[in-house]
Specification:
heterodimer; A: 134 residues; alpha/beta; Rossmann fold; four-stranded parallel sheet; 4 helices; 4 strands; 41% helix; globular; B: 644 residues; FAD/NAD(P)-binding domain; Alpha-Beta Plaits; five-stranded parallel sheet; 18 helices; 34 strands; 24% strand
Chain lengths: 134, 644
Amino acid sequence: MKEPTIVSFLCNWCSYEGADKAGNARLNYPANIRVIRVMCSGRVDPEFVIQSFKEGASGVLILGCHPGDCHYKKGNYKALRRTYLLKRTLKQLGIEEERVRLDWVAAGEGERFAKVANEMAETIKKLGPLELKS
Amino acid sequence: MGEKIGVYVCKCGPNIGDRIDVDTIVEDIKGIEDVTTAKWHNLLCSEDGLKFLKEEIKNEKLTRVVIAACTPKTYEHKFMSVCEEAELNPYLLQMTNIREQCAWVTPDKTAATEKAKKFVMAAISRVRVQEPIEKKEIDIQPDVLVVGGGVAGLEATLTLAQKGRKVYLAEKSPCIGGLGARFEEVYQTMECAPCMLAPELQEVLQRENVETFTLSEVEDVVGSYGNFTVKIRKKARYVSEEACIGCSACFEPCPVEVPNEFDEGLSRRKAIYLPFAGALPNVPVIDKDNCIGLKGKECNACENSCAFGAINFGDEDEIIEKKVGAIILAIGSTLFDPTSLTALGYGNVDNVLTGLELERLNASNGPTGGKILLKNGREPGSIAFIYCVGRKEKGYCSGICCMYSVKLAHLVKEKLPDVKIYSFYSDLCLPKKDHQRLYGEAVDKGVEFIRSDGTESVTRKDNNLVVEYKTDSKTKRVSVDMVVLAPAVEPNPDTEKLAGFLDIPRDEFGFFSEEHALMKPFGTPLEGVFIVGSCQGPKDIGDAVAQGAASAGRILSRLIPGEKLELEAMISEINEDLCGGCNTCISLCPYFAISRDEEKKVAVVNETLCRGCGTCVAACPTGAARAKHFTKEQVFAEIKEVAK
């Protein structure tokens, strides 16, 4: 059985640094959390999520700055709106909406990053690997 | 010719070396297409490591480089510089983080090695489709426009001018100096404000590289950082600044008298007037709304009295256009009008004043020559100060009213040592290092501070004012001769207009919004436009001056004469052949960097304003928008490897 991977899009300014802080503090989380750096959570095109599933991911994590803290003012709100719509579409395609999680992690929140990563890994473990019908 | 990709894995001593099987990774990737070199290094960021990297790029004739090491946040810029030194475009480097986001969070060495390999594979796939990005530079105009001649604007002007910059200073009123010039003494130094400001005002007016436009308002701004074109309306003064010697002989003959707004209406002035004695520039102005001569009646009293032919009834507004690289907004603030709080009696009951009115009564260039007098001309025997007027209505603490009220109490006590002073407050805001001391000294002088619940009311009874207040749930009354209110600071009404045509945001209270409350407290999302002093939020003189100097510093360090402005490299671009002209991106851009080319019916990115967030790219329905260095192909290349 293939290992269910979780592609994680982290914004450059807050969440990516939050993930670095988790590392500095040597907090553990499963190795199937795979990070891709983007400048802003607002850059995460719904296509990135679909593509991740197509390429074999079982979950997608999108992390941005907390509301009001976006380095680019409002990119995280745009991510919020897009993710909401995307989840509805995924549901219609038979993909559980829990497989996509949008959350906020600040640059100093190493513990929070590890918590979100562990929770997401747990969620995906419960759901099992995503089997896409071709 | 094929690509030559060099992959370098850093062991970071034991940090990566002990937790990830680096040797295996290096061996495994050696066979991958285009990877011509794969090596590990014990510490790539060391001097030795950087030298090694530079030589590798040159000797192996690498066309692309992957570095697997610590977080790119720490040394990516260093490795990019090495690429540049080795004549490789720095955007053909990809770093992947196998320390903070792999070795340090994955205790199992096998799992960590497998994950790190995926990261390295993703970086190799990505770097293959990365594109060189050439630095873009634009010519700039180093001159600066400062709007507002109060303390913040003056400081900005002088800081720039002393470094040789040309500054245009536009001030709406007939004189420069702002509110500060109307105060007799200011906290916390208890210094004479006109004396403190006079040398600055003189220098601004005398410097050849400062052009001061009084009676002037900015009417339009187009362009962007480095290259703005501003339109200023300089209203007619009707008195020639060149011919007038400032002798004041024209005031006396003028038959018109109106309340003087510069004395808060407490004195009267003529239709030709100087706002207050000592106002600079020392040239009177004719108030065209009240001058009967300008309204067509037969009157040229001032003209006849002028020995220098300085009066010019034919003067007209002038539109001045200037090109500047940056704009500093320092338009200040105004005070909350307490008339709406009817219980306080302001505007209705005599001898209920605002703090600013008392400032003018106390000023030696004010309506009473500095005497603190009641309306009937007597000195007050008792005064009640009421703090926090309008705080509840405005929804924020202005932070300076407690201190200006404490200061006024000091000044009154100096002039009238026997006066009884009550100060009604609900919360005292004394945050700075000298504030507690000044408050303590006021208490020592006999000023009585009474904590009330903020529901004071003022009524007239016989010849006295009765202040009713609640303290400890008990209603009490005190009889005084004068009441002085401390109204909240609120935005200058011009804030809305300027924010409108500059396209910069205002906060929920109507002040200009700073770009970042802590890191960019005087910047705006529109690069090259700064907000300093109390137009950004209530501020005392010291803080306003600090922001004025700071904004000038920002300009001096980035907008340099003879140098080009380097633009952000990782920005968005729009392919006009693919753009459907739907305008989705235009409304999404947080920096107003995208506009519509009406002729071609497509969206166009302003390279000076774009900061590369990529939100337009994520939203573009046709794929016309592209984020340099974060293209779909590049992200997909990463996804392909890490999703497996």
